[in-house]
Amino acid sequence: MKIIDKVNKAVEDGRCFWSFEYFPPKTQQGVINLYDRIERMCNLGPLFIDVTWRWGGKSSDLTLELCSNSQTVYGVEANMHMTCTNTSVSLIKSALEKAKDQGVQNILALRGDLPSGTVEFDPSIGEFRYATDLVKYIRSAYGSHFCISVAGYPEGCQGPNDVEQDIEYLKAKQDAGADIVVTQLFYDVDNFLAWVARCRAAGVTMPILPGIMPIQNYGGFKRMTDLCRIKVPQEIWDRLEPIKDDDQAVKDYGIEVAVEMIRKMRAGGVLGFHFYTINLERSTSRVLEKLGFVPAVSDVRPLPWSPSLSEKRAGENVRPIFWRNHARSYIKRTELWDEFPNGRWGDARSPAYGDLLHGVQVRLTSDQALRKWGRPESVRDIKDLFVQYCHGSLDALPWSDSPLQPESEPIRTRLALINAQGFLTINSQPSCNGAASADDIHGWGPPNGFVYKKAYLEFFVAPDSMHALLKRLSAEPTITYYAVSKSGELLTNCPEDSPNAVTWGVFPGKEILQPTIVERVSFLAWKDEAFDFWNAWSNVYEPASASAELLTAISDEWYLVNIVENNFQKSSASIFELFDGLGAQLPPNGTTTA
Question: Active-site residues: which are they?
């Protein structure tokens, strides 16, 4: 979808909106971390995100990949930067064709930063001289297919003497076919509002989104404002001076400055705000929180998982619960499907899931993993790590690189107890009997609806404990389960292969939605990934070490089990009562003793 259509709708509704900018990291680990950050920050409800591209198109492929995956996996519209400094028509055409093929419909057309070591701009280098030329090319070659954003400079591109000329350039960009203006960062709100008035007087009618960069540290702030020739009100310098060596105090003050800037702009009639995140999360999140910019549940969670914006996945509204924390993998393994479940799951045997081409990865460097997980040498050590994760004192495990979701809060203590008994959980959800769709914890979907969930647990367990548990499950008429070994030995009490809806919602004027299911073929496809995380974890250690051998043994010998309590009217606690007295339990505090 074009961003201009979303912006115009927000303006028509009179509601505030916001967007985030990211830059492509230089390392693969950095890319993995950025994907995780984008996924989390999507919960803040951005109207769109944009991703920069380094001069000469040096990051064009990664920029496009980040934009495409953000739309396909996380369901957020992406605006792809495109610079024309030192670029050829063939490079621009190739990038635009790829963007079109991958469903990226929004371009931020820029002249671009100067190449490293260059002091002045030389318009004779490359086949495009200015951003206006790039806008003209995109419109002439692709008509109205793309929404085109351009840059605006409230304090002049090269300095205050350029302001009037820059406004003329901005009008020329609009006449060439541009749709939206995103401004350079600034800190003088009065100057910005005056500049907007001058733009309007000059005939610039495009929506203008002010660029906001919360101050992160004194040194970086001074370098950035000097580089961009940004005027900073003296009051800000005066407040920063006594705290400039205290990074946390500077960050907190930066949040305060951004909040006051936005409040002042709102009073001046501005509705949209563009955050330069510099790939950081906390400050932007805190600014939105302090402003009360909380998106509606129906906007952030139209389904329990983020719907893809890929055209071929349009209408997809059912997925297995197993990939809950691994959406990118699910998208990749199903990308060759001709159609995607809409309303019902159907037969998952055709087409089949794609293979795991490169295996799974622990989303930490080896050093980070060692600091976080140490060197476990016994099952007791492993249980201890899982218990710490449940209690919140450990923020990641190989199967999940973020803490437990808020919906797990009511079952957090019970999860810790069964992990201490040796039932190592990697996925769970509590039951829910008719929570409002606007509920902050359980809610999803359109307004004025009600949502339901069956209690669900998924865990690894040693064979002896598993068989003891299955004996109990066989006596429970409302419990269904699947248990599978790494080699594929499957145990289940499900008489058929039909899907079992574990989440559903009832909404005014709509059919019942069943967006999350448990199903045999999908579980068998998922188990390959789930077991592979043990191997990925073991690769952190030396091959013959006690830690590597322990993790490999668990992978080879244990079972992956999922349990559904189909009576959703029962409390979430009831599913945990099945584990009472099983396994070997850690001390109550969940820590090992030497």
Answer: 21
